[in-house]
């Protein structure tokens, strides 16, 4: 989201409730980081990975089995999630075990899934 988009959002919100005080806007770097996180979550396989990791840390082959997706595709999506700070990988012997960095991101995904299910 650009700062212009944020300004549009603020103006849009104020138009609905003139009595509401203007929302405090995060700085540009924070808005950029939030956009990066949301883009990283914007793929069905990555959403499924986050849901799997919410239940328990998993290695790549467990994600491949659970999601019925190829290993190269899982690895590619994990790289995106890792670079966005959504997941981290910890080496355990010959495998890397992936886990969510924190639960905040799982809540975003859960809320998005619930919202999508309500629309169907």
Automatic annotation (TrEMBL):
CDD domains tied to this protein: HTH_ARSR (cd00090)
Any Pfam family hit: HTH_5
Highest taxon in the source lineage: Bacteria
Sorted UniProt keywords: DNA-binding, Transcription, Transcription regulation
Domain HTH arsR-type, first and last residues per copy: 26-120
Entries under SMART domains matching the protein: HTH_ARSR
Start and end residues of each stretch annotated as Disordered: 1-26
PROSITE patterns in UniProt: HTH_ARSR_2
Record's protein name: ArsR/SmtB family transcription factor
Organism encoding this protein: Rhodococcus gannanensis
């Amino acid at each position: 989201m650009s700062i212009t988009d944020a300004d549009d959002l603020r103006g849009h919100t104020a138009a609905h409730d003139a009595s509401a005080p203007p929302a405090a806007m995060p700085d540009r770097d924070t808005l950029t980081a939030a956009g990066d996180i949301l883009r990283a979550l914007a793929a069905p396989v990555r959403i499924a990975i986050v849901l799997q990791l919410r239940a328990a840390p998993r290695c790549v082959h467990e994600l491949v089995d659970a999601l019925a997706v190829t290993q190269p595709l899982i690895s590619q999506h994990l790289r995106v999630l890792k670079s966005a700070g959504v997941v981290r990988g910890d080496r355990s012997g010959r495998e890397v075990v992936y886990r969510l960095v924190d639960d905040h991101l799982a809540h975003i995904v859960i809320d998005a899934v619930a919202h999508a299910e309500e629309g169907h």
